[in-house]
Amino acid sequence: MSDTDTQIDVTFAELGLPASILAALEYDKPTPIQKACIPALLSGRDVLGMAQTGSGKTAAFALPLLSRIKADLACPQLLVLAPTRELAVQVAKACKEYAQKMPGIKVLAIYGGQRYDLQLQALRQGPQVVVGTPGRLLDHLRRGKLDLTHLQGLVLDEADEMLRMGFIDDVETIMAELPKGHQTALFSATMPEAIRRITRRFMRDPEVVHIQSHVRTAPEITQHYWLVYGLRKSEALVRFLEAEPFDAALIFVKTKNATVEVAERLEQSGLRCAALNGDMNQSLREQTLERLKDGRLDILIATDVAARGLDVERISLVVNYDIPMDCESYVHRIGRTGRAGRSGRALLFVDQRERRLLGNIERTLRLTITPVELPSNQQVAAQRLSKFATQVSQQLESHDLEQYRGLLLKLGAGEEQDLESLAAALLKIAQGDRPLILPPEVAYEQRTTATRGLRERDAERFPRERRAGGDRDRARSHADMMLYRIEVGRDDGVEVRHIVGAIANEGDFSSRNIGNIKLFPAHSTVELPKGLSSDLINHFARTRILNKPMRLQLIGETSPTAPRRERFERSNTGRAGERSSRQEYRPAKRFRTAVDFNQP
Questions:
Q1: Which of 317, 529, 532, 599 has the fewest CB atoms found within 10 Å of its own CB?
Q2: Residue 98: which H helix or E strand, with range?
């Protein structure tokens, strides 16, 4: 087992990565799991990594395995299995960024819910890296559309999550069909027996890397997140910065281009800001930081690389405009405020598809980040008026007001205007491009209530009630479940795990929230929590299992009395022997009495 705690600080270049990979990296120092895994994978060894989500494991396997890909061979050479489509998209995006200096490398994400024809067209173009969910990858393998004869590397990302979601059988089936001689890397936060069985069966003397997460945040930092909806992120950022009192703010984005784009948007709104990125020379960087320190700038937009080691006492607000991919980056970012015992605030923008990353951060840090509402026009207007009133108060203390009193009398001379009306007109002129009176938002609020998104609306109906230390969410009773029918059954080749995986993936909630499942030849029944939105139900109706739409339909409330359930089943089967041959999925006893809705 690798002891990463005793290793001295090294750079990516010292780990042996090629120049094409190093050129795409925006940071120099690897995390502990990267220091341990990269040399082992570069040497051709299998790796078994045990680390919490957010430890930087994506780069730990992607960087060394990408460096071994042959760009002139247009077929899959690296296969990554991920439990959810969100993680598959995230890993594929990271691989594209790491391979941006490697001409000819194509990366493809494959997952359920995406059109088959689009995926088949992309597969025909010969991607060297394929990232996907087990069910959809297995479908393509069985259809003969995914050729893995030249596979060099296989990665199982978050294997314990795949086990919990019922994909482990699919994973073993895929691994059994792969050619011999490939390199395997498996990453899991925990190591249940089913995962150990895979390591014994499919891995060759793996290098075991166990990383204990020690990241913590300062208690002086108040942390909130805003779920992106209604407005574009740049417009919402302006609102938060205008409504939020702060001395100086630091905005974190992912790319160098984004620093410039966001800075331009804030400048258009009259905010004093500047970009800070790796393309700036040292002299310009120092000048920018000096302007922030002495108050000539209020806002800095930076990447992680540019902000390393930044310690400006004025910074009281940190905004994660783009959510970081790992927990260490998040802690580093918000640590730019609340330093040396000072208080600070951190705000995180979370897109709908990034809610899983938010859950990862919360679990790793063992805390709950509370949501915050978008500031209204009235709040923005109140802040503008307050700042304007401060400027007026400062001018009232000036010694040269007498000269302007004379000008005021001249402006009102010859017209029957009272001084109050004249002052109001001057106030209207003085506001410039930032009006002090903003229109009400009744129409906007009504619109966003209806279009906030399926998952957010259901999350509001079933709020997560997490506790520090990993305590289980509050139980929901069996009476809180509803019975649904789906139009896929045993004759379609469907198994319980397929239903659990499809609903958990498409609904973005834990498989623990799924109640009893019963399989019949032509259909199945499943228990789901009460109160699901009609939009989410319609979404499930279009969701496909083994390329057949579920067509989810509500039957009624579940009941602890069996006769009512059995009468329904007899009335819907039409065949006497069907009930006796059905398959049943009954969660463990605690699942029938407790439903953990929206548990990450």
A1: 599
A2: helix 85-98
